[in-house]
Design goal:
Belongs to the immunoglobulin superfamily. L1/neurofascin/NgCAM family. InterPro entries: FN3_dom (IPR003961), FN3_sf (IPR036116), Ig-like_dom (IPR007110), Ig-like_dom_sf (IPR036179), Ig-like_fold (IPR013783), Ig_I-set (IPR013098), Ig_sub (IPR003599), Ig_sub2 (IPR003598). The protein is mainly β. It contains twelve helices and 80 strands. The strands form 24 sheets. Strands 1, 55, 58, 59, 62 and 63 form a six-stranded mixed sheet that branches. A hairpin with a 2-residue loop joins strand 43 and strand 44. The N terminus and C terminus are likely disordered.
């Protein structure tokens, strides 16, 4: 039994997937809805003001304006107007490239006109809204969209306070998204708009010469645009040509030939211009060509004489047509030529025989060309064949002979290529087109063709084989498809292969196509035109069809490469801009207009909608609205309470209210209110919360025998106000309920189970709002054969290095890296490791960047800001890694403020009156910009003293003159020339401890311990102690030994029987001091010689021992007692006996 994690697939009626972060609001247009005023002191509100401030009229406190002109500090600075709540609260907004905050600014005074406008706006609010505003924090617009119009007084120049710096950082990205015009026809018809091209002919426009010519061009705008055309870049005067006219309310050209005329006279390049008083839009450059179907030249063809078994190519050489004709081969009697792997037509139209047989003489061969526009077929004079053979009778019984060629006396030959020639060739294809590779081979027997890609697999989702495997087609080619392909032609006589190196180039394609920009008066915005291609395309800007450099100067417009920045737009700023990007393979042309509108708020959704959602789900209540300037939107519940934003609620820029987790108490009526300086609008949504659908008794896995009955349970609990539907799937496909099955509300029964019933069964319980799934597997007992696979063993090696690295799709934070794989040396490449090197922090050191499967040879790499990257690739198979590829060209990313701070921040005292602050410096991929430095802050813990700070370029800083062993709060923040990193975490450190005698003594000991003589002395002492311990161990173990009785100068008694071999007994009774021993000072017996020296009792004075030191032989009597005392044991040479002797 397995429950599937697939609840809610049907979706909630009121639920829409939460939008991703709006990545486009900084790409073009105005700022998003203004945020609250946040400074270093927090969020300001009415409650936080003094009594004096609160007693002032709200309208004279709020709606005052200041502005700052930051032009001297940046190429992208602009004037911005921001209201403040009281004389002591000031908010400033600036945008600049360098990230360096200017020390001073020009200030401008308050606007009484704006205050009056705000007062009138406040007076029009509903009673609910007025009650809410009394409790709300002051919403302070930030960004170009917050500017009000009115007289502005200049104030004295003064220094910006530190908290204003923080406020400026919050406004850096305020250049936001543009206003979007809704598709509602009532709104579209009311608003003034520059022209937009809506329909046009294709760039390469081929027409039938028998029909009239139509060149399409349609556009919309308000007022409706007028049209004119150019031909070959010169004005095309339609009025002077009676054959040419233009459709009514359209720019479409009609060229009429009913009264005569030659269509070829009108060939050329046409371009349409749509114009109204707000600007001019352009169509693509349309190349008009007339279809051509020339006749085949007359020629007399002699019979083709060929030896049976030899290869043959019949060339077609069709006449050049426009477009190219479709080629096919037939006989002169219009019978199609049968094609197979021996006889087939190539992509160039020629007919190829891998080997000619006698039967090929039975027909003739004629090439036919079908022309698309004229719908005509032209036939070339037919070829006739004369086949020379060693077996003149064409016996049909030999056609099915297992060795037909030998039976006909045809010599067998190894394959050779008829097309293409040689062993290698190259081919270029454009991105997005189809790649067609072809290999046609001769040989006897007819060769088989197989296709491979070097260093990887063929793209199974895009590759298909044509023409009896002689052609490989890859559709919609991309950079990953570049590399080396080879075809293998083989028969029983041998094999050959041809390698085709494929290069993928690209006509320009859009990365960021410029979009229409609609702003309110005084707002800022930008148009972005980014395209990629191979080679990299160039970009040209135009305005109303004229090159931008020749257009009248506009102080509110600035061009920065692929971006046009607009500041303080006014009604007069309306125009249509064109971006033309081109390379040798083609061009792209895009129109984008800039329009300036004043529109009060309007609600776009139906009023009083009912939304039903499932308990504990996440949902969104939509409130689409429109206005210019973009209105601010607030949500309220049940006509009371505070604005809904924060906690379980989140309001998106498009006006949607997200409830992160629905509870029963969230049911009710929600009101959205949109407001701008021109008015307000509101709408209501009723939310109902429903219980979820749950399967509480799920089907279980079962094993059944054939012919038995199986029942799968599925019991469901759901909201009674919703309609429940229970259905079943088998192997994830809808289950057909046949006569052997019975479906009930809470179960599925299968009668007479068969092998085909085996599989997974899924119960799907669904309502119109949600669903629940549960799956079980049914196993039917049956015998199954186990297939075996055999793989041929081939010698394997490390892969060859990848080559020809190329960087494309160059973006701000990413790049596409493409490479050609090396030979895998009979072991498939499993992985590619991409490494990078940067030349600022660690030049020459390579780091792993990412890892990719061995089936790809192109990947998009995510990059860090301000790194001068160079890449290389390593291929890996089961044998090992290849050598690294040669490095790619370098690519430097643009800079940005750091997104992290240094790690391992510590504060420790090295002396009693200091504290050393250390941290791990950041590397090149986290620096994000030049001149990486660290802002170090510290202050004593649990005090209210201000932070001390210093800027450091290294990785340590020593704070001096600190009290003894006091805790400090420490922060280290990264900063570069583009700005500061995020607010750092606080770390607790301690200053140094006071010195004590014990500490001094310990330090002296530490100093002594590092001296060489002291170390040597301690080692000698340790060695002596070890020797004494060994001696004690040996002495302790002596009691277990059996000493041999010494030789006496007396006859042997009966207690000393002598063995036949001359040896003696030995026992514990002689466990007493031996001769030659002496008594030590402490009364113990100290042995001078070894107790059991076996040499003393040997006959030759030399002991014999095994390799492990054991004695060989017997203990025998010595003739001389003096020898017993004088001889040394042979064991004395061992380490233990040597130490024993020393003792």
């Amino acid at each position: 039994m397995r429950r599937l994690a697939a609840r809610g697939a049907a979706g909630d009626a009121g639920e829409v997937a939460a939008p991703a972060a709006d990545s486009t609001h900084c790409a073009q247009g105005r700022s998003p809805s203004p945020p609250r005023l946040v400074t270093s002191s927090g969020i300001y509100s009415d409650a936080g003001m003094s009594g004096t401030d609160q007693s002032r009229p709200r309208t004279t406190q709020w709606w005052q304006e200041i502005s700052c002109w930051l032009g001297p500090f940046s190429s992208r600075s602009f004037v911005c107007f921001l209201p403040f709540f009281s004389p002591r609260l000031i908010d400033v907004c600036a945008i600049w490239d360098t990230g360096v905050l200017p020390p001073t600014a020009d200030w401008k005074g308050a606007s009484s006109g704006v205050a009056g406008a705000r007062l009138n706006e406040a007076e029009t609010l509903s009673s609910i809204q007025e009650a809410q505003l009394e409790r709300l924090e002051v919403a302070t617009p930030c960004g170009p969209g917050s500017r009000e119009r009115g007289p502005v007084l200049r104030m004295a120049r003064q220094q910006l306070p530190p908290w204003v710096h923080a406020a400026i950082l919050l406004c850096l990205l305020s250049l936001g998204r543009a206003i979007e015009i809704p598709m509602d026809p009532s709104i579209q018809n009311e608003l003034s708009q520059p022209p937009t091209i809506t329909k046009q002919s294709v760039k390469d426009h081929i027409v039938d010469p028998r029909d009239n010519i139509l060149i399409e061009c349609e556009a919309k705008g308000n007022p409706a645009p007028s049209f004119h055309w150019t031909r070959n870049s010169r004005f095309f005067n339609i009025a002077k040509d009676p054959r040419v006219s233009m459709k009514r309310r359209s720019g479409t050209l009609v060229i009429d030939f009913r009264s005569g005329g030659r269509p070829e006279e009108y060939e050329g390049e046409y371009q349409c211009f749509a114009r109204n008083k707000f600007g001019t839009a352009l169509s693509n450059r349309i190349r008009l060509q007339v279809s051509k179907s020339p006749l085949w030249p007359k020629e007399n063809l002699d019979p083709v004489v060929v030896q049976e078994g030899a290869p043959l190519t019949l060339q077609c050489n069709p006449p050049p047509g426009l477009p190219s004709p479709v080629i096919f081969w037939m006989s002169s009697t219009m019978d199609p030529i049968t094609q197979d792997k021996r006889v087939s037509q190539g992509h160039n139209g020629d007919l190829y025989f891998s080997n000619v047989m006698l039967q090929d003489m039975q027909t003739d061969y004629s090439c036919n060309a079908r022309f698309h526009f004229t719908h005509t077929i032209q036939q070339k004079n037919a070829f006739t064949l004369k086949v020379l053979t060693n077996h003149p009778h064409n016996d049909s019984s030999l056609r099915n002979h297992p060795d037909m060629y030998s039976a006909r006396g045809v010599a067998e030959r190894t394959p050779s290529f008829m097309y293409p020639q040689g062993t290698a060739s190259s081919q270029m294809v454009l991105r997005g087109m189809d790649l067609l590779l072809e290999c046609i081979a001769s040989g006897v027997p007819t060769p088989d063709i197989a296709w491979y890609k070097k260093g990887g697999d063929l793209p199974s989702d895009k590759a298909k084989f044509e023409n009896f495997n002689k052609a490989l087609r890859i559709t919609n080619v991309s950079e990953e498809d570049s590399g080396e392909y080879f075809c293998l032609a083989s028969n029983k006589m041998g094999s050959i292969r041809h390698t085709i190196s494929v290069r993928v180039k690209a006509a320009p394609y859009w990365l960021d196509e410029p979009k229409n920009l609609i702003l309110a008066p005084g707002e800022d915005g930008r148009l972005v035109c980014r395209a990629s291609g191979n080679p990299k395309p160039t970009i040209q800007w135009m305005v109303n069809g004229e090159p931008l450099q020749s257009a009248p100067p506009n102080p509110n417009r600035e061009v920065a490469g692929d971006t046009i920045i607009f500041r303080d737009t006014q009604i007069s700023s309306r125009a249509v801009y064109q971006c033309n990007t081109s390379n040798e393979h083609g061009y792209l042309l895009a129109n984008a207009f800039v329009s300036v509108l004043d529109v009060p708020p309007r609600m776009l959704s139906p009023r009083n909608q009912l939304i039903r959602v499932i308990l504990y789900n996440r949902t969104r209540l939509d409130c689409p609205f429109f206005g210019s300037p973009i209105p601010t939107l607030r949500w309220f519940k049940n006509g009371q309470g505070s604005n809904l934003d924060g906690g379980n609620y989140h309001v998106y820029e498009n006006g949607s209210l997200e409830i992160k987790m629905i509870h029963k108490e969230d049911q009710g009526i929600y009101t959205c209110v949109a407001t701008n300086i021109l008015g307000k609008a509101e709408n209501q949504v009723r939310l109902e919360v429903k219980d979820p659908t749950r399967i509480f008794r799920m089907p279980e896995d079962q094993v059944a025998k054939r012919g038995t009955t199986v029942q799968l349970e599925c019991r469901v609990k759901h909201d009674p106000s919703l309609k429940l539907t229970v259905s079943w799937l088998k192997d994830d496909e809808p289950l057909y309920i046949g006569n052997r099955m019975k479906k009930e509300d809470d179960s599925l029964t299968i009668f007479g189970v068969a092998e085909r019933d085996q599989g997974s069964y899924t119960c799907v319980a669904s309502t119109e709002l949600d669903q629940d799934l549960a799956k079980a597997y049914l196993t039917v007992l049956a015998d199954q054969a186990t297939p075996t696979n055999r793989l041929a063993a081939l010698p394997k090696g490390r892969p060859d290095r990848p080559r020809d690295l190329e960087l494309t799709d160059l973006a701000e934070r990413s790049v596409r890296l493409t490479w050609i794989p090396g030979d895998d040396n009979n072991s498939p490449i499993t992985d590619y490791v991409v490494q990078f090197e940067e030349d600022q922090f660690q030049p020459g050191v390579w780091h792993d960047h990412s890892k990719f499967p061995g089936s790809v040879n192109s990947a998009v790499l995510q990059l860090s800001p301000y790194v001068n990257y160079q890449f290389r690739v390593i291929a890996i198979n089961e044998v090992g890694s290849s050598h690294p590829s040669l490095p790619s060209e370098r690519y430097r990313t643009s800079g940005a403020p750091p997104e992290s701070n240094p790690a391992d921040v510590k504060g420790e005292g090295t002396r009693k009156n200091n504290m050393e602050i250390t941290w791990t410096p950041m590397n090149a991929t986290s620096a994000f910009g030049p001149n990486l430095r660290y802002i170090v802050k510290w202050r004593r813990r649990e005090t209210r003293e201000s932070w001390n700070n210093v800027t450091v370029w290294g990785s340590r800083y020593v704070v001096g003159q600190t009290p003894v062993y006091v805790p400090y709060e420490i922060r280290v923040q990264a900063e570069n020339d583009f700005g500061k990193g995020p607010e750092p975490d606080t770390v607790i450190g301690y200053s140094g401890e006071d010195s004590t005698p014990t500490a001094a003594y310990t330090n002296n000991q530490a100093d002594i311990a590092t001296q060489g003589w002291f170390i040597g002395l301690m080692c000698a002492i340790a060695l002596l102690v070890l020797i004494l311990l060994i001696v004690c161990f040996i002495k302790r173990s002596r009691g277990g030994k059996y000493p041999v009785r010494e030789k006496k100068d007396v006859p042997l008694g009966p207690e000393d029987p002598k063995e036949e071999d001359g040896s003696f007994d030995y026992s514990d009774e002689d466990n007493k001091p031996l001769q030659g021993s002496q008594t030590s000072l402490d009364g113990t017996i100290k042995q001078q010689e070894s107790d059991d020296s076996l040499v003393d009792y040997g006959e030759g004075g030399e002991g014999q021992f095994n390799e492990d030191g054991s004695f060989i032989g017997q203990y025998t009597v010595k003739k001389d007692k003096e020898e017993t005392e004088g001889n040394e044991s042979s064991e004395a040479t061992s380490p233990v006996n040597a130490i024993y002797s020393l003792a």
